[in-house]
Amino acid sequence: MAYTMGRFLPEKYKPAFYDAAVSYVHPPLGIFPHINPGEIFVWAGIANGVEQAGYNISELAVRYLLIGLVVILLRGIVTERITAVMWKTKEAK
After folding, report:
1. Distance CA 2, CA 65 (A)
2. What whole-number distance in Å separates Cα of residue 1 and Cα of residue 52?
3. pLDDT per position in the chain (93 positions), as tens?
4. Nearest Cα to 9, choosing from 75, 83, 78, 91?
5. Buried b (16+ CB within 10 A) or exposed e, 17-45
6. What pLDDT, on the 0 to 100 scale, is given for residue 4?
7. What is the pTM of this model?
8. Distance between CA atoms of 52 and 54, rounded to whole angstroms?
């Protein structure tokens, strides 16, 4: 559904939108394991090690989600800036 919403964006915003949409499948994994079943084994291994070290898995999941959202925001901004520079270069030719 997210990709369908991207169809309605102007062309110059599509690369940043796609980058953010594709990147979003990772951070919510700790809270909603069914989001990305292919990565659940990695998450389970890390969570098992964290749990054996005596830490709370819930804190790990929330931190993973929050840091992931910040990284996605930064990636989207950087991709949008790069796209803007490329559009200006294309228009100048």
Report:
1. 19
2. 38
3. 667 888 888 888 888 888 888 887 777 877 777 777 777 888 888 889 999 999 998 888 888 889 888 988 898 899 999 999 998 887 876
4. 83
5. bbbbbebbebbbbbeeeeebeeeeeebee
6. 82
7. 0.72
8. 5
